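Entry
Fold in token form

___
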Amino acid sequence: MEILREKKLAGHHLTMSLAQNRTDELWKNFLPKRKLINNLLNQDLISMQQYPPSFFENFDPGREFEKWAAVEVSDFGNLPAPMEPFILQGGLYALFNYKGSSNDPIIFQFIFQSWLPGSEYVLDDRPHFEVLGAKYQNNNPDSEEEIWIPVKRKTEVGNTNA
């Protein structure tokens, strides 16, 4: 479990669904243009998904969500024209260090079908993201990435201090 601080991201996004996956198109458009960004904080790539509320409760592979290809920046000043700013809200995240092909869905099946239901947490309505660092090798079984899932404690659900 990690407490994430707010991050400033710059990148591109597309609307897609799991059934109509446009991830390759997104990254092919973004990667050549990231070299135009001068205020990078690191060399990591961020693959981020912003799902509508109750996306996982009423799961439908045709339901659309927004996916981003991005990098972390120090500020939004002088962003090159094709890049869009995004503020990634901080908060509690479950962090999974994953080694394996990025095309293998088994890690997400484990997270959403085994780990999450058996934990003291539920999904929070904030972006999900993966950090694709120096050891990331797209679709390679030796690839490594961080998977960040926004969560909150089950005891916080329905708790209001009104």
